[in-house]
Write a structure and sequence with these properties.
The structure is a homodimer of 141-residue chains. The first copy, chain A, has a 7-stranded antiparallel sheet with strand order 2-3-4-5-1-6-7, with helices on one face. The first copy, chain A, has 141 residues and is an alpha+beta fold. Chain A has 3 helices and 7 strands. In chain A, helix 1 (23-37) packs antiparallel against helix 2. Chain A has helices at 23-37, 89-98, 115-119; strands at 2-13, 41-48, 54-60, 63-70, 75-83, 103-113, 128-134.
């Protein structure tokens, strides 16, 4: 596969419920994640829901970042999709640390042009990488 | 797992290169996909790159849609992330049809709160569903 993009699917659990319900905090964290990745932010949109929850996306020159929070569950769903050779993982470290995630699930998907399509090969589970570990077990990159 | 969201990861191949390089077309298609899904659009951001390519995201009340196009490869990477019980799949049908994808890869990921985390169970490949089929083999929903 010729890789055009790397897409991190992040599930953050046991986050600080006040922090993830604060639009300004959530936007600041996502922008910091984009900065840590080395991305160039083109546009931003954030919204706070009633009674709770924040959603936002950053359009970057190298694809996008998105975040959705469920303060009632302490849960955050975030995505970091990069192309142009940028490594999205340092952005994950920022989000997990800043939003004080107790646990997380991290899944990386390669986006691009599979030569396998032409050959009719089915996509295998091995095409998707899933890792699980405790937040805080590593330091931010 | 208590499902909070459904996330479709779409890879569209052999798309019409002129269509996917046209910002107005790409935005119209993504908005149509959101409408077909039954989503409420809160905000939109789109950008056309030089010499080619379009990126955009729609923030919806039920999460987001995103799209990135590589006209030089006839390739489109799109995401449809919905919560609140919305089915994202009709949105995929719109994009594949309107952008005239010759082939596609469709992957659905469940986003949410895994009870398995507490029990220390690793995420299994079965947690990720991957399907591959020819575009045009089904009719829009």
């Amino acid at each position: 596969m010729k890789t055009l993009g790397r897409h991190l699917i992040l599930e953050l659990y046991d986050c600080d419920r006040a922090l993830i319900d604060d639009l300004a905090v959530v936007e600041r964290c996502l922008r910091k994640a984009a900065e840590r990745v080395g991305a160039t932010v083109m546009a931003a949109q954030f919204h706070r829901y009633c009674p709770q929850g924040v959603s936002g996306t950053l359009l970057i020159a190298e694809s996008h970042l998105s975040i959705h929070t469920w303060p009632e569950h302490g849960y955050v769903a975030a995505d970091i999709f990069t192309c142009g050779g940028l490594d999205p993982r340092p952005g994950f470290e920022v989000l997990a640390l800043e939003l004080r995630a107790g646990q997380h699930r991290l899944q990386e998907i390669v986006r691009g042009l599979p030569d396998e399509i032409a050959a009719g090969r089915s996509i295998l589970p091995a095409d998707v990488t899933v890792t699980l570990r405790e937040s805080g077990s590593g330091s931010p990159g």
